[in-house]
Fold:
Amino acid sequence: MSLLHATWLPVVPAGSFAKGKAPTAGLLIWADTWRVAEPVSPTAEAPFHPLSLDLDDLATWLDDNNFWSEDLRQATVTLTLPSRQQQSRGTKSTDNSPWSGLPLQSGEPLPKDLSWWPWQVEGWFLKPGPAAEWLNQLPLSGAYEAGLGDDLLWWCHVQRWCLSLIARGRWLPESADGKASWRPLLNREDDRRRLEELASQMPQVVAASSPAPQLACGRPRSNRLLVASIVDKLVDGQLREAFQPGAAGLDPLLAAWEEGLASRDGKLKLDEEEQERLCGASNHWRETVAGKVAPARACLELFTPPEGEELWDLKFGLQAEADPTLRLPAGLVWAAGDSNLALGELQLEQPGALLLEGLGRALLAFEPLERGLDAATPEAMQLTPAEAFVLVRTAAARLRDVGVGVVLPASLSGGLASRLGLAITAELPEKSRGFTLGESLDWRWEFMIGGVTLNLKDLEKLSAKRSPLVQHKGAWIELRPLDLKNAEKFCSSEPPFSLDDALRITGNEGETLARLPVHAFTAGPRLQAVLEQYHQQKAPDPLPAPPGFAGQLRPYQERGLGWLAFLHRFDQGACLADDMGLGKTIQLLAFLQHLKAEEELKRPVLLVAPTSVLTNWKREAAAFTPDLTVNEHYGPRRPSSAEALKKALKGVDLVLTTYGLLQRDSELLDKVDWQGVVIDEAQAIKNHTAKQSMAARDMGRPGKGPRFRIALTGTPVENRVSELWALMDFLNPKVLGDEPFFRQRYRMPIERYGDMSSLRDLKGRVGPFILRRLKTDKSIISDLPEKVELSEWVGLAPEQKKLYSKTVDESLDAIARAPLGQKHGQVLALLTKLKQICNHPALALKQDPTDLDASFFKEFAARSAKVQRLEEILEEVMEAGDRALLFTQFAEWGHLLKAHLEHKWRQEVPFLYGSTSKTERQAMVDRFQDDPRGPQLFLLSLKAGGVGLNLTRASHVFHIDRWWNPAVENQATDRAYRIGQQNRVMVHKFITSGSVEERIDRMIKEKSKLAEDIVGSGEDWLGGMDVSQLKELVTLSED
Amino acid sequence: MTLSSNGITTQLGDEGLSQQPWWVEQWMELINGYRFKKRLERAWAYAREGNVLSIRFEGRRVHARVQGSGEDPYKVKLWLDVLNDEDWNYVLEALGQKARWSAQLLAGVMPQDIERAFAASGKRLFPFKLQEVRSECTCPDKVNPCKHVSAVYYLMGERFSEDPFVLFQLRGRTRAQLLSDLAVKRRALLAKKAKEAKANPDAEPAITPQAHPAPVSIREPKRWWRYGAALDPGLVVITPAMEGETGLDEAGAIPLAEDGRFPEAGKHFVEHLKAQGTSFGATAMATAMAAGSNQDD
Structure:
């Protein structure tokens, strides 16, 4: 897969364009891609980038992804890119051999000896105006998966800033050097910070362009100046296109200026003398409004008066833009004289002039400063209390906006902390266990301003001083007119304080109690323990496997069980979102068994799951919790009346049903007083308007008695904002409010604009109810074996079932009647066909994908339960960015599945099988192992792909159909599970329950000792079975 | 007499002065203090009719072309007594004594008490009376100042508002020269201080110059492709300008001398820009709102 990049061309070199005049600056869009390439040695000109996408392919890619624009122009430019030294295959490196190598691909691991080399790259060029328009259409949340490089996200953020500057009118027209242009004003505090951030985080590929096509590397320049000039050009381009001249009654100078501002090249049609006048006036107009783009700025630091004195000290100095804590006092600045001054890593030229210029602008915003600048080399001055107050309250903001830093004492430095708020200490009442949300806590409170606590009496005393800045307990704080009133109001009302409040306050920043912000919260040890567990600041207390549980829990599973029980006591819904393979099913079963053992399980629990995993649940429940009575509400013979259902549920602990039936039989199921509702593969309810989702959420609401809610999912739910609402509405409806509110408050800001503060807030809110552990977590790794084998039990879809039974019936008769010589072959043919049916009817019916239309693929998954389950698991694999090997014994199946998977994920899925040529094989393997954005799925035939290959980049292995010989399967598994593997390997073995596959599985397990005897014989030995043995092997059993 | 098509005129009335920067006001006071009132009034009318074709500051002189009764315009030259190097040295010395003066000059502000620095040399920046402004005119009129010269006087005041530092230029130093001379003075002063400090062992420790660190892209090659920052919270919702906080609001009127034939041209220019700016802003906000909407399901 290729990855798109955008590089800024500050100067477009001559000859870069095929035809037409080259504009002065703009954006080059290009892409690199993975392919096998020979190392290149440079000649007099920079060599062509061997891994870049050519113009036509790039155009096609842009067009396919709706990124094509009529304004794109061809260009070839030289970029300086990180490269790797590499000798051509077959040549030996000597000291004299010339440099040869390849440019690195983005995302490729960096070699130790990295070098920078110029490469010629073909791409498409946009002038600043169209570039801005083009950037506007890119997703703001980034789309690395879709082939957009990180640098494009950076560009999106830059353009978003430009839009903000335009919306806020932070620009001024300029005329300079005979040209009229629109210039953004970057002097405001926020904008200066943005410039710093975008400059310091800029991916260097943005600045990779070299000035000439000759063999020369571009030298990294100052990012700050580069970003400022990019913003200059982007804003100019946008305003120039939007501007409509037409002011009436302009004199010739201004009319020419207008014309220049609207024209493409900006040329001022004035004679030299007039131009000089206009430029002079423009310069003078702009000078005091716009700041300079420099690495450091002048800064004023306010100090509180020493004990017993009145006057405040204000010290002058320089401050680094990038890090406001880096400061230099004026004394050092003056002492540096003519030489450079180091400020952190910065080298400041002419620091004295920098400081003086800033102080000159500071005078415009804070007049008392004039007094302090009487000396030749002033370092500080003193302020009266009134002046200090003006500085704190209003002038500081103004000063920052003209580009002068202001540092205030901590207790006065603004923000919420300097406002009147509360400091609270609380603990659980002695007898409480801390399990009821509404229960009141023992608590104490004090007022707090600027980090200093005080009581109402203190406040009254301080207010009486009638001074806005007062000293209390040694710190200076700012009293606001309404503070005393609010404090009195709070005292007279004294609100209650519950566990609920404590959870809320400790969960989010900036929470309030009775409208006062809570500045400090201290919990007693017992309350602290509850809070920590609730907010998952520490691992949940483990709960050992309950009596009656037939199996062992790994330590992290015991913690998961403890967590489920903890939230259950609070009557809070819980979402267990552990990574695939960590045993969610087991934890849930253990939880139900725990309730049973505690004699708390009095009414039936409803478990809703996709049809494809129902079988799995039944198997696991039977294996791990034999004490639980499990019933299935499924199939045509399920109860259809309330009475019948009631009867069927007598003594039943757990009822399994599907999402489809939940919706269809909702009225019926609603009549049962469930003790709890569990939804498995909870992403099934993500679409909150879908009937299935509404039915599940309705079912979660309390019935006659309370009803616990648990959701299970292997997907990272907390990252899927749009899907969170439905999930939380099922679990704990109050947490996220109603849907329209949720969409406005969280979904839009986060999804469209990538707003992190909303995301943090959202995560804080849902965090207590979601437990997600990854295979890679340190605490989990030690509990897990390096290779985890998972049996994926699946059923048969109706079409499969019909076809299977029919095939068995017909073939058994035929085999019974067949002459001995043919019997052997017929048995094998039957087994093959049945296994194919378990995979997919289309395989058994020999339907050829190339003859079939799109509707074939639309219904493809619905026809096979195995494919449905496979898709569900692959979804999680893809989501996690993992890679997987898929093994099958049928080449035709490989082709079908390849077509289907490529169709579904719009991603290439290579298929390696018997007729794949040797070079193709090597290319597939190299690509899978080495391409940073290579395919995530790799299909292999068991025979061709089972030996010899090294595919350690995969951390999942799927055996889609079973082979009689476990050794062959294990050998295939070892393609991934071998030296070089960095992760745990998950091995998924699909078994169709009740079918020949289950018998094979049982046989493999029982006869594993015999496996050695059968090696190499494949299925041959099966041919010798008699009909009754055969019948037992293949007949579909209903269980 | 025909009115030239590209003449310079003024709309300055008596009230018009109140909005002017102090140095323009001072210039106008100078003119109004002149004793031959009648002659000035005529010159004023003459200027308003657009007879001054051009004014140009060239080095230490002002060159103007004024349309008289003849076919060719008269050439007018104006100049002030230039301060000699020694005088300038005194001025610079004085300017260096107060950080504020340098600070303001560097920030593009003309200090109100600048004359005090010039007083050190016994000279002035502004002429004390109009007679100090020397002039020449190619007209046959023997009187100095003739009405052509007087007409230029009027317009010069406004020209000072375009760039106050032309006054320095007329006295012999451009702003750039002045600033660089000031820097030299400052350095000398600081060097002296540093020397004194060195003699004093309690002084601040000397600063050791640091080597230039390698550019960040070399030190952290990972940064070549990577960017993972979240969108600035302040850019999530694009907000319009606050009252009075656009660049145009802050910059105020354009300091361009007004041409009498195009009354209030500067105002029209800025107002049109403001109207356009509102529409730019609305478009930008609509664009920002729509961003990413194509990903919605």
